């Protein structure tokens, strides 16, 4: 079942974060990748939260979520219209109350990165290994 793609768009609002998580869970179950639901939902939750938090300063009012299954990899992409600040992995101070989302993304993923979009905005992409249930 390689080569599948799903695209969804959500409004830039806090209510979109749980909706994006649930969308990922539904798609992955349909694709028989239910064993990746928790990891993928956490990654999408972090990326969508970042988009909702920061992209309000951009020119659009939506966040786009793309899921792709390619050659043993699940690709998750979250795009928004805010292009002036690209996400960077950092180590927040112990007293900081935010800034740990990309640490989680980095720990769960095979690879991740960010690229500018044509026009305005950026896409943060994440690769998760597609493994069979029970494999480590």
TrEMBL record:
Pfam families: HATPase_c_2. Residues 13-126 form the Histidine kinase/HSP90-like ATPase domain. The keyword Kinase applies. InterPro entries: Anti-sigma-factor_SerPK (IPR050267), HATPase_C_sf (IPR036890), HATPase_dom (IPR003594). Keywords: Kinase, Serine/threonine-protein kinase, Transferase. Coiled coil: none annotated. One of its GO terms (molecular function) is protein serine/threonine kinase activity. The keyword ATP-binding does not apply. PANTHER family: ANTI-SIGMA-F FACTOR RSBW, ANTI-SIGMA-F FACTOR RSBW-RELATED. This is Anti-sigma regulatory factor (Ser/Thr protein kinase). It comes from Streptomyces qinglanensis.
